[in-house]
What we know:
By secondary structure, the protein is mainly alpha-helical. The protein folds into two domains: 15-275, no CATH class; 282-381. It has helices at 15-38, 43-69, 77-89, 95-107, 123-132, 152-159, 161-180, 183-206, 227-232, 239-244, 260-270, 282-303, 308-345, 356-381, and strands at 74-75, 274-275. The protein has a two-stranded antiparallel ribbon with strand order 1-2. The longest helix is centred in the last third of the chain and has 38 residues, at 308-345. The protein is globular, with a radius of gyration of 25 Å.
Amino acid sequence: MADPARTEPHAPLVWANVLMFTLTLAAAAILVPWYGVHHGFTVADWAVFVVFLGANGMAVTAGYHRLWAHRTYEAHWSVRLLYLVFGTMALQNSAFEWCAGHRTHHLHVDDVDRDPYSARRGFWFSHIGWMLRAYPSGRNDFANIPDLKKDRMLAFQHRYYVPLAIAANVGLPVAAGLVFGDVWGMLILAGVLRLVWSHHVTFFINSLAHMWGSRPYTEDNSARDNPLIAVVTYGEGYHNFHHIFAHDYRNGVRWWQWDPTKWLIAGLERVGLARRLKRTPVFQIRRALLAMQFTRAEAQLARLPGVPSQVEHLRARLAHEYESFLAAVADWARLKEQWLEEKKRAVLEQWEHVDPQKKLRDIERALGAQLRRMRVLRAQLAY
């Protein structure tokens, strides 16, 4: 992934970040085992650690990422306030800074000069190195967040970020320690270890999720789908899907895929605390999957040894499937355009006896069947 010939510019160190990451990691590595051996952590210490860790993670994934960076849904002010409290506690900068950088990442993904944490500059750079030095690619341009700058909550957090971050990271663990009678244990576990764990789990999305996994939807960028990374990142590990359908509130689009962030957002919608959840149409998802299947089948066919007649038979099957695919895409586009036209003009004459949505669903089901046929065909090509 990294370009070995590339020489990184000698950017100045960002000492605040260097000290924060170094000291918190050292404190976690030394204090956690020392305190555990000499004093022991209570059940309450571990419970609050888990609660704060989950709240930080969800505030970043459901709040910073899917709500504000990509505007995949709308949330009630009370939910947004909780996202801000625990997002500030996660110590990943203000929502302004985080979202501006993330939108730049999506716009210039893998560009070694413009992507703030391009994976093509290596694991270390994309994981944490980009924050340790003042690289030109890391300079945020707030021109790409005009919508967020209108939000008074976000503006307040950005203006007073440092005191708010200190208050959240010290005040909340101390308050929990006073309630449960173990201030030092709570500070070490729910304060320091929680912060270090939360940081590096989030950073895995920028590093490992661009290096390890599959690319079922697109190979136009380095983002990967990886169910193991999804487990520790609250569903963000389905990164290949996310980079092609960034405005979908889901990352794990299949019902069985581990994505607690999407379940949280869907649950908030159920109780009236979220609305206007954006979902990518099934047709568009299957179209992307099939397009990748055809690309890979053609590559397999080109490398396939064997009897010429067998190869020609497989090539004819592939060509037939591709023609069916193009016909389905054309039909879907035509029907969708006609339906939107009729809806805009509020004229129902053409659709008096025809349900356009049913026709669209029929096409989606046909693409699903074709996707299964293509998997069988690719399995034959693998032999």
